[in-house]
Design a protein that fits this description.
Layout lengths: L1 E2 L5 E5 L10 E2 L14 E2 L2 H4 L13 H10 L4 H5 L5
Parallel strand pairs: 2-4
Antiparallel strand pairs: 1-2, 2-3
Length: 84
């Protein structure tokens, strides 16, 4: 399980890494209970979707600099990274 450092977002992965690219899996059935605590469970399909298809209008200039430098291809790679 990967937790976002600043937002109540949860992704599920096979093993803990410093950088995630394509390692995302769908939440297990037991994880639905986390939603009642305010967490958003992200599916593998959402996390593996193209960053170009995501609404990125809320990103700051600093975040865009990081994206341009690290070039994450997926939404999950941009959200769950070790470079910010």
């Amino acid at each position: 399980m990967a937790l976002h450092a600043h937002y109540p977002l949860i992704a599920f992965v096979g093993e803990r890494l410093f950088v995630y690219r394509t390692e995302f899996v769908d939440p297990p059935s037991w994880a639905a209970a986390l939603g009642s605590f305010g967490f958003t469970l992200l599916t593998a399909a959402e996390l593996l979707s193209s960053l170009e298809d995501a609404d990125t209008s809320a990103l700051s200039k600093a975040e865009w600099r990081q994206i341009k430098h690290w070039q994450p291809a997926t939404l999950g790679a941009a959200i769950f990274n070790s470079w910010d």
